[in-house]
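Make up an example, fold above all:
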Amino acid sequence: MINFVLYHIPSSTGLISAIFFYIGVGLYGMSLGGHQKLVMKTISSYTGLFIENIKVSGNIETSESDVLQLLSLNELTSILEFDVAVARQKLSMLPWIKDIEVRKVYPNTIEIRIAERTASAIWQYDSNLSLIDKTGKLIVPLTDKRFMNLPVLVGRDAEKTISSFDKQFIIWPAIKERIKAYVWVASRRWDLYLYNGIIIKLPEDGVDLALLRLLEMEKKYNILERDISVVDLRLSDRMTVRLTPDALVRRQAVIDERKRIKNKGYHGT
């Protein structure tokens, strides 16, 4: 039986085995010598394990071209030498990336799953406008009109208040829907700029009580629909209202007319 097996083994088998044996020994020696990448390339050239497909999912604001450019992959990149940890570290530097998963799918595919951050507000500091997430971390400069409906936080350190800001104003939808911008004053309190031009000055403490007073005045007198430029709620025991310049002119005209009528009646007696 042994003789039969030996008889049917091709004469070239020993030569081929010897060749692969010496290739293996050579590659092992190169690996020990610190040439792992070269070893991987050599193995890939024999096995065809080159990266041919890159699948990116979960991305909305992050473009696939940015991903590919950052990874610097080409048709000669071996999937064996592709370092998943390094790729993940590089891609995490992209501005919209919140979390990312990178994995190899043999024989020739890289899968990249992206979880992006969500823009929660626009932060204005000096003349710069930037998108920030719910933690107050800057994402990118504002360049896209799609985000113009987000709330605007204005002032130094205003971005740091966004987590408390959401909790503070979300319970006042009737007021919140009127607000164009939130200005953080002296890192202590808010001024609210409404779409109709009215400025509401809130106190440093007791914001909820101040907004409750404002809402009550709005329900009774439609105060936010009148010719008012400023509603000052900084003092807990009073509300101060400043008229618009046009309203002041009209008010002064009414006062002057009353004086004229009064004086005319006085001189006529």
Observations:
- The first helix runs from residue 2 to 8.
- The chain has a mean pLDDT of 83.
- The first strand starts at residue 53 and ends at 57.
